[in-house]
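Appendix B, record 7
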Amino acid sequence: MPQVNKSAICKIEKLNEEQRLVFATFLESDIEDFQGDIVSKKDVEKTSHGFMLEYQQIGEVHKVINPQCKIVESYIDRSGDTWKWKGVVKVFDDAVWEKVKSGEYEAFSIGGEGQREPIEPAISNVA
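C-alpha coordinates (predicted):
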Protein backbone atom coordinates (compact mmCIF):
# COMPACT_ATOMS: atom_id res chain seq x y z
CA MET A 1 0.00 0.00 0.00
CA PRO A 2 1.44 3.38 -0.94
CA GLN A 3 2.36 5.91 1.75
CA VAL A 4 0.55 9.22 1.16
CA ASN A 5 0.77 12.71 2.59
CA LYS A 6 -2.64 14.29 3.02
CA SER A 7 -3.97 17.74 3.64
CA ALA A 8 -7.51 18.92 4.16
CA ILE A 9 -9.04 22.37 4.12
CA CYS A 10 -11.40 22.92 7.05
CA LYS A 11 -13.58 25.98 6.67
CA ILE A 12 -14.15 28.17 9.68
CA GLU A 13 -17.77 27.57 10.69
CA LYS A 14 -18.31 30.19 13.37
CA LEU A 15 -16.58 32.91 15.38
CA ASN A 16 -17.16 34.13 18.89
CA GLU A 17 -15.67 37.60 18.62
CA GLU A 18 -16.01 38.46 22.30
CA GLN A 19 -13.94 35.44 23.37
CA ARG A 20 -11.82 35.22 20.18
CA LEU A 21 -12.90 31.66 19.49
CA VAL A 22 -12.80 29.97 16.08
CA PHE A 23 -15.00 26.89 15.48
CA ALA A 24 -14.37 24.28 12.77
CA THR A 25 -14.80 20.65 11.76
CA PHE A 26 -11.26 19.37 11.27
CA LEU A 27 -12.04 15.95 9.78
CA GLU A 28 -15.14 13.98 8.77
CA SER A 29 -15.54 10.29 8.08
CA ASP A 30 -17.17 8.52 5.17
CA ILE A 31 -17.13 11.37 2.66
CA GLU A 32 -14.78 11.81 -0.29
CA ASP A 33 -12.10 14.47 0.25
CA PHE A 34 -10.31 16.68 -2.29
CA GLN A 35 -7.85 13.89 -3.13
CA GLY A 36 -10.63 11.35 -3.71
CA ASP A 37 -10.00 9.50 -0.45
CA ILE A 38 -12.46 8.49 2.26
CA VAL A 39 -11.47 8.52 5.93
CA SER A 40 -12.98 5.85 8.17
CA LYS A 41 -14.58 6.52 11.55
CA LYS A 42 -11.67 4.66 13.16
CA ASP A 43 -9.19 6.97 11.43
CA VAL A 44 -11.07 10.11 12.50
CA GLU A 45 -10.75 8.91 16.08
CA LYS A 46 -7.10 7.89 15.65
CA THR A 47 -6.20 11.25 14.08
CA SER A 48 -8.03 13.31 16.70
CA HIS A 49 -6.58 11.40 19.63
CA GLY A 50 -3.07 11.38 18.15
CA PHE A 51 -3.13 15.13 17.57
CA MET A 52 -4.34 15.88 21.09
CA LEU A 53 -1.91 13.46 22.75
CA GLU A 54 1.21 14.27 20.74
CA TYR A 55 0.96 17.65 19.03
CA GLN A 56 -1.66 20.24 20.05
CA GLN A 57 0.00 23.06 18.13
CA ILE A 58 -1.42 25.49 15.61
CA GLY A 59 0.77 26.75 12.80
CA GLU A 60 0.26 29.83 10.71
CA VAL A 61 0.21 29.31 6.95
CA HIS A 62 2.20 26.06 7.33
CA LYS A 63 5.29 27.99 8.36
CA VAL A 64 5.63 28.62 12.07
CA ILE A 65 3.92 27.35 15.18
CA ASN A 66 2.04 30.18 16.84
CA PRO A 67 1.99 29.72 20.63
CA GLN A 68 -0.71 32.41 20.85
CA CYS A 69 -3.27 30.16 19.13
CA LYS A 70 -4.47 27.30 21.34
CA ILE A 71 -6.93 24.46 20.88
CA VAL A 72 -9.33 24.86 23.79
CA GLU A 73 -11.95 22.28 22.75
CA SER A 74 -11.67 19.05 20.77
CA TYR A 75 -14.29 16.34 20.43
CA ILE A 76 -15.71 13.78 18.02
CA ASP A 77 -19.37 14.18 17.15
CA ARG A 78 -20.55 10.58 16.77
CA SER A 79 -24.26 11.45 16.58
CA GLY A 80 -24.80 11.07 12.83
CA ASP A 81 -23.92 8.75 9.97
CA THR A 82 -20.49 10.37 9.76
CA TRP A 83 -18.12 11.10 12.62
CA LYS A 84 -16.84 14.68 12.79
CA TRP A 85 -13.73 15.80 14.66
CA LYS A 86 -14.67 19.30 15.80
CA GLY A 87 -12.63 21.85 17.63
CA VAL A 88 -12.38 25.36 18.90
CA VAL A 89 -9.23 27.49 18.75
CA LYS A 90 -8.67 30.54 20.94
CA VAL A 91 -6.64 33.27 19.25
CA PHE A 92 -4.58 35.50 21.54
CA ASP A 93 -2.46 36.98 18.71
CA ASP A 94 -3.94 40.36 17.63
CA ALA A 95 -2.60 40.19 14.06
CA VAL A 96 -3.93 36.66 13.49
CA TRP A 97 -7.30 37.59 15.00
CA GLU A 98 -7.62 40.52 12.58
CA LYS A 99 -6.89 38.15 9.65
CA VAL A 100 -9.55 35.74 10.89
CA LYS A 101 -12.16 38.50 11.34
CA SER A 102 -11.42 40.05 7.95
CA GLY A 103 -11.75 36.70 6.15
CA GLU A 104 -8.12 36.61 5.05
CA TYR A 105 -7.85 33.42 7.11
CA GLU A 106 -11.02 31.51 6.26
CA ALA A 107 -10.00 27.93 7.01
CA PHE A 108 -7.67 25.59 8.84
CA SER A 109 -5.48 23.22 6.87
CA ILE A 110 -4.65 19.94 8.52
CA GLY A 111 -1.99 17.57 7.28
CA GLY A 112 -0.91 14.05 7.95
CA GLU A 113 0.26 10.86 6.38
CA GLY A 114 -1.02 7.35 6.12
CA GLN A 115 -1.53 4.31 3.95
CA ARG A 116 -3.89 4.41 0.99
CA GLU A 117 -6.04 1.28 0.86
CA PRO A 118 -8.23 0.47 -2.15
CA ILE A 119 -11.94 0.17 -1.39
CA GLU A 120 -14.01 -2.44 -3.14
CA PRO A 121 -17.13 -0.96 -4.73
CA ALA A 122 -20.37 -1.90 -3.02
CA ILE A 123 -22.63 -4.27 -4.91
CA SER A 124 -25.99 -2.56 -5.24
CA ASN A 125 -28.09 -5.19 -7.05
CA VAL A 126 -27.79 -8.75 -5.89
CA ALA A 127 -29.98 -11.42 -7.50
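Remarks on this record: The chain has two helices and seven strands. The first strand starts at residue 3 and ends at 16.
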